[in-house]
């Protein structure tokens, strides 16, 4: 499964990066490809390319604050999660997307 994600929080500091790290670790540990872009207080880091978006099965966006340039994900399956869930429930997010992916491949 190929996934891209964008994390951002209202203050744009610690939680943005904690969410990115948690999501990335959970998907990689489960054997999936993932790239995480952060939109923090210092701007956009690790920007997701159009090619990566094209290959993505899912786009995960945190919903605590508006994501910059969100229109680039139009037409993709978007999953919105809170920053807190991205940090605390990343493994559950992986399992839910795996189930959805498997059911769509039948």
From TrEMBL:
<dbReference type="InterPro" id="IPR003353">
    <property type="entry name" value="PTS_IIB_fruc"/>
</dbReference>
<dbReference type="GO" id="GO:0016301">
    <property type="term" value="F:kinase activity"/>
</dbReference>
<dbReference type="Pfam" id="PF02302">
    <property type="entry name" value="PTS_IIB"/>
</dbReference>
<keyword id="KW-0813">Transport</keyword>
<keyword id="KW-0597">Phosphoprotein</keyword>
<dbReference type="InterPro" id="IPR003501">
    <property type="entry name" value="PTS_EIIB_2/3"/>
</dbReference>
<feature type="domain" description="PTS EIIB type-2">
    <location>
        <begin position="1"/>
        <end position="99"/>
    </location>
</feature>
<dbReference type="GO" id="GO:0090563">
    <property type="term" value="F:protein-phosphocysteine-sugar phosphotransferase activity"/>
</dbReference>
<dbReference type="GO" id="GO:0009401">
    <property type="term" value="P:phosphoenolpyruvate-dependent sugar phosphotransferase system"/>
</dbReference>
<protein>
    <submittedName>
        <fullName>PTS system, fructose-specific IIB-like component</fullName>
    </submittedName>
</protein>
<dbReference type="InterPro" id="IPR013011">
    <property type="entry name" value="PTS_EIIB_2"/>
</dbReference>
<dbReference type="GO" id="GO:0022877">
    <property type="term" value="F:protein-N(PI)-phosphohistidine-fructose phosphotransferase system transporter activity"/>
</dbReference>
<keyword id="KW-0418">Kinase</keyword>
<keyword id="KW-0808">Transferase</keyword>
<dbReference type="InterPro" id="IPR050864">
    <property type="entry name" value="Bacterial_PTS_Sugar_Transport"/>
</dbReference>
<keyword id="KW-0762">Sugar transport</keyword>
<keyword id="KW-0598">Phosphotransferase system</keyword>
<dbReference type="GO" id="GO:0005886">
    <property type="term" value="C:plasma membrane"/>
</dbReference>
<dbReference type="InterPro" id="IPR036095">
    <property type="entry name" value="PTS_EIIB-like_sf"/>
</dbReference>
């Amino acid at each position: 499964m190929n996934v891209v994600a964008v994390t951002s929080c209202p203050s744009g500091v610690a939680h943005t990066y904690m969410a990115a790290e948690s999501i990335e670790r959970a998907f990689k540990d489960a054997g999936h490809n993932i790239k995480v872009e952060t939109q923090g207080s210092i701007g956009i880091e690790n920007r997701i390319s159009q090619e990566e978006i094209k290959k993505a099965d899912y786009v995960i966006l945190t919903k605590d604050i508006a994501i910059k340039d969100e229109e680039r994900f139009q037409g993709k399956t978007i999953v919105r999660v809170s920053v807190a869930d991205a940090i605390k429930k990343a493994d559950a997010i992986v399992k839910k997307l795996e189930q959805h992916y498997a059911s769509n491949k039948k």
